[in-house]
């Protein structure tokens, strides 16, 4: 019996669990929500839209007709909005206060007790159905939620902001494919490790080492893709979104889980390599003895 094989087996099991949690985070409201790839804070996104609806001081007469047309829907709320009541802006134009991106879906909701509170927490009200190769189209989501008196163009989502969002969309699609392969290989590593525990064969150790190494490569590449997409996407959105009230925050927890899973598979591969080398030496010593 090869007792050293128990360690890489445990590494593979933990890596598999971490990977599955990463994959299914956000599958239902408040399920590992803090492991979203990125969270978009849209509480102030309506600033440009509300400005467009409010009258200019020099043209009160010209704009009075516009306000009277929408006074029953949006204007009543907008007139009461101040810089300190950010949650009413999103509510006034019909959108949610945040949108969080996961590998297979997105979630949305509000902040409690208020968006400006230092200890504000997410209150997820809806999560889309999970699907393979999920395509996160924030513009389409917002357009469907906006009040009829607001146009998506009023939100000020520039081409630069959309480039940051598109970068995230591409990263999520690329990560999903590679990650699924890595998870499948990790599951196979668990099965072969069980066999390797009861086998003293050098071939079994070599096969396990190779499979663990390949699994590490796939999980590592997936972690690298999503890390790059999250970092670059967040920086781009924050750089160009500040003027229109859009902020982005990436999740270090998700990135930590992804990299931890890859690191565990690397440790497991090195353990199998040691087992393979030491086992070979023992056999040579036994023969010469």
Principal-axes shape call? elongated
Largest sheet, spatial ordering of strands:
4-3-2-1-5
Question: Which range does the strand content fall in?
Answer: 5-15%
**Mean pLDDT across all amino acids:** 84
Instruction: Tell me how many strands there are.
Output: 5
Which class best fits the helix and strand makeup? alpha+beta
Number of helices, where a helix is a run of at least 4 consecutive DSSP H or I residues: 8
Separation of the first and last Cα atoms: 22 Å
Quaternary state of the chains: single chain
Percent helix range: 55-70%
Note the run of SSEs as H and E.
HEHHHEEEHHHEH
Largest sheet: 5 strands, antiparallel
How many whole angstroms does the radius of gyration measure?
Answer: 26 Å
Structure description:
The protein is α+β, with helices and mostly antiparallel strands. The protein contains eight helices and five strands. The chain has a five-stranded antiparallel sheet with strand order 4-3-2-1-5. The chain is elongated and about 75 Å long. The model is unreliable at 53-57, 64-68, 70-83 and 285-289 (pLDDT under 50).
Concise description?
Helices cover 61% and strands 9% of the residues. The chain has helices spanning 6-24, 47-53, 60-78, 86-93, 138-145, 159-197, 202-241, 252-288, and strands spanning 38-41, 98-101, 106-112, 121-127, 247-250. The protein is elongated, with a radius of gyration of 26 Å.
């Amino acid at each position: 019996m090869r007792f050293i094989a128990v360690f890489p087996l445990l590494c593979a099991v933990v890596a598999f669990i971490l990977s599955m949690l990463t994959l299914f985070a956000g599958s239902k409201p408040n399920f590992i929500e803090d492991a979203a790839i990125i969270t978009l804070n849209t509480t102030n996104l309506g600033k440009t839209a509300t400005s467009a609806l409010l009258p200019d001081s020099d043209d009160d007469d010209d704009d009075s007709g516009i306000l009277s047309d929408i006074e029953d829907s949006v204007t009543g709320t907008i007139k009461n909005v101040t810089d300190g009541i950010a949650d009413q802006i999103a509510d006034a134009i019909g959108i949610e206060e945040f949108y969080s991106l996961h590998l297979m879906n997105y979630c949305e909701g509000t902040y409690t007790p208020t968006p400006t509170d230092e200890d504000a927490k997410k209150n997820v009200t809806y999560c889309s159905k999970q699907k393979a190769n999920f395509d996160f189209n924030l513009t389409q989501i917002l357009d469907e939620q906006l009040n009829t008196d607001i146009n998506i163009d009023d939100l000020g989502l520039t081409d630069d902001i959309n480039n940051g969002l598109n970068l995230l969309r591409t990263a999520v699609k690329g990560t999903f494919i590679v990650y699924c392969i890595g998870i499948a290989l990790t599951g196979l590593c668990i099965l072969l490790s069980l066999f390797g525990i009861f086998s003293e064969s050098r071939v079994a150790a070599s096969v396990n080492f190779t499979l663990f190494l390949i699994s590490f490569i796939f999980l590592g590449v997936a972690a690298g893709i999503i890390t790059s997409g999250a970092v670059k996407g967040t920086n781009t959105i924050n750089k160009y979104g500040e003027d229109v009230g859009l902020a982005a925050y990436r999740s270090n927890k998700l990135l930590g889980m992804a990299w931890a899973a890859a690191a565990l598979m690397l440790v497991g591969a090195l353990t199998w390599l040691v087992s393979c080398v030491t086992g070979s030496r023992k056999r040579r010593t036994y023969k010469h003895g």
